[in-house]
Amino acid sequence: MSRLERVETGLGEECGVFGAYDIDGHDVASSVYYGLFALQHRGQESCGIAVTDTCGKRKVLFKKDLGLVNEVLDEESLTNLKGNLGVGHVRYSTAGGSRAENAQPLVINYVKGTLAIAHNGNLTNAVELRKELEYTGAIFQTTIDSEVIAYHIARERLKTGKAEDAVKNAMHKIKGAYALVVSSPRKMIGARDPFGLKPLCIGKRDNVYFLASESCAIAAVGGEVIRDVLPGEIVTFTKDGIQSDTTMALKPEKQARCIFEYIYFARMDSVIDGVNVYHSRIVAGKALAESYPVQADLVVGVPDSGLVAAKGYSEYSGIPYGMAFHKNSYVGRTFIKPKQSQRESSVKIKLSVIEEVVRGKRIVMVDDSIVRGTTCANIIKMLKKAGAKEVHVRISSPPFLFPCYFGTDVPSNEQLIAHSHTTEEIREMIGADSLGYMKVEKLKDMVGDLKYCDACFTGNYPMDVPGEDISHAFE
């Protein structure tokens, strides 16, 4: 997704990581490809696969570039990626710009061999760590914080006997949010930050082990989910099976999963840390209906993440649920809008209103968030132009008031419409007949007993954060 497009469409996705290790020695590139395809919603900017043969010369082969999975990886490139251990990545830039060299996995050659690393998340101390490395002679090829992680793992590997111990030592230095999939010459290693901010799960199909950002990707390759990687856990896969190290783990009450996985990021058919995403969004919709009842004829959701919450609103309120939008699934990764006057067209290209459904009706429109307000205003305008008598907006997240430092592209305070406007002012600005946001205290109903991070709504960060936006500090 280009920077221009991100300004228009609001929240950006996180990244998605996927790993596969076939103990029997068969090639895994096609499995990684389909796993990434299932994670495409987490990033449409760039993608890549790196593979190695644990039984042979252990040379790492890779293909990565800007573009969607099916744009970058074709049948020929998958055939050429020979190896039984593979790491894959889909990217949305939360740190570093839209450049081909920033595509992952990162492949680093060093004295102990070759590392391939895929990272989802954002480090809060990346700037200081990078400066330290530069002053000791490191030369950086990218502008992403993932390279800082890769350097630290490589350096620590020179002092340790095992690659997983190098990952552990690096985890003592890096701070922030991360889910990592690392391939060393003979091992696949997964690691999750101690707070559990970023998701990572383990799957298996016959003698193939998988690591994935979401369970839907494991299902896509015919695997079964074994469990989630625990916050702070390092899991190592070798020909002898799985080993676990949880010495970095925090107590459960200190953990902080990203609540936005359940509101927006994750695919509705995923299960993360034991919580069914579809169910959590149904609960969100019911909470909105309970908090903000209204007389209306139809409840509709904005595709995709607003659809299930709309169903929940309908179930609780008794107002019929309908499909008011057609989403164009074939809009490419770059839709450039060089002029302000052209921005409205981007919404019309992606969404169209089904006039027959909304004409003459009072509509409840459920969406996952309002960031800057532009997109929401354009959709309301489209609904009213199609004949909707009223449009009552319900948002399945609380108002964004604070930036995110952990990999979610929530912009600076000045760009957040809720930071400087009341709910009534926002309602008027977007042209809604009424507006209701999810109440902060209702978020816990979505995830049960899980401890979660809601800092973008409350300012209560689970760790110390920088005093400024670091998402593009290296550009």
From TrEMBL:
Essential cofactor(s): [4Fe-4S] cluster; Mg(2+)
Catalytic site positions: C15
Top EC class for this record: transferase
Pfam families: GATase_7, Pribosyltran
EC number(s) per entry: 2.4.2.14
Domain called Glutamine amidotransferase type-2: residue spans: 15-240
Record-listed Mg(2+) binding positions: S305, D367, D368
Cofactor note: Binds 1 [4Fe-4S] cluster per subunit.
Amino-acid positions noted as binding [4Fe-4S] cluster in the UniProt annotation, renumbered to this chain: C258, C404, C453, C456
Pathway linked to the protein: Purine metabolism; IMP biosynthesis via de novo pathway; N(1)-(5-phospho-D-ribosyl)glycinamide from 5-phospho-alpha-D-ribose 1-diphosphate: step 1/2
Function: Catalyzes the formation of phosphoribosylamine from phosphoribosylpyrophosphate (PRPP) and glutamine.
Similarity remark: In the C-terminal section; belongs to the purine/pyrimidine phosphoribosyltransferase family.
Protein name in the entry: Amidophosphoribosyltransferase
Organism of provenance: Bariatricus massiliensis
